[in-house]
Amino acid sequence: MNEHIYIAEDEDNIRETVKTFLESENYKVTDFENGDLLYAEFVKTQCDLVILDILMPGSTGFEITKKIRKISTVPIIILTAKDSDLDYATGINLGSDDYFTKPFSAISLVMRVKAMIRRVNLDKQAQNAQISEVNLNYGDISINKKTMKVLHEENPLDLTPTEYNLLIYLIENKDRAISRDELLDEIWGYSKDVETRACDDTVRRIRKKLADSRVQVETIWGFGFTIKEENP
């Protein structure tokens, strides 16, 4: 079955160009002139990946991302005309998985889409397989893989799907340092040639959410990250 992608973009030429490139890769694409139309359709029929412009008539891409995240973990890519750190942080914090600044290469966007969908499909296969260890515990963090619930002591941590997957991977590989390239490959499905700030920004958000925990993510400068449990 071909994966179904929704795109909301009010600039006709960008929307049509992206749609054409995605369809050339055999994806089914439904395009919308604004995010409200996309969300109305998403509530009725969910898709496999969402591409959202930020500034559109009606609700912004940020507002639509927030709505979608309340009901789905579908991958979301944000498009923006501004190369703004604030826009980037806002989109990622609301639960988007990656970010493109206009003008961008449609080919590069398609490569990211393919990588994300491949990663999601692998995750689904893993979830459908028998999970040998349902509960994962490390320090004062406990994770139930079936329910995807994460607790710090008895307090739930509100993690986005990408944050959840990254935290799981770090804990399951707690005895070694992990490179950025490995994380981009394992969590996002990106090759080392893809330039993105997604990994570092996701780690930064996880650190904030683990601020009161003994479990901390440490940076290995020039290489990547490792996870450690601090002494009580």
UniProtKB/TrEMBL annotation:
Domain OmpR/PhoB-type: 133-229
Highest taxon of source: Bacteria
A single MF term (Gene Ontology): phosphorelay response regulator activity
GO BP of this protein: regulation of DNA-templated transcription
Keyword Membrane: no
DNA-binding region positions on the chain: 133-229
4-aspartylphosphate: modified positions: D53
Record carries keyword DNA-binding: yes
InterPro entries: CheY-like_superfamily, OmpR/PhoB-type_DNA-bd, Sig_transdc_resp-reg_C-effctor, Sig_transdc_resp-reg_receiver, WalR-like, WH-like_DNA-bd_sf
Record-annotated membrane-spanning stretches: none
Pfam families: Response_reg (PF00072), Trans_reg_C (PF00486)
Keywords from the UniProt entry: DNA-binding, Phosphoprotein, Transcription, Transcription regulation, Two-component regulatory system
Stretches assigned to the Response regulatory domain: 4-117
Function: May play the central regulatory role in sporulation. It may be an element of the effector pathway responsible for the activation of sporulation genes in response to nutritional stress. Spo0A may act in concert with spo0H (a sigma factor) to control the expression of some genes that are critical to the sporulation process.
Protein name: Stage 0 sporulation protein A homolog
Organism: Alkalibaculum sporogenes
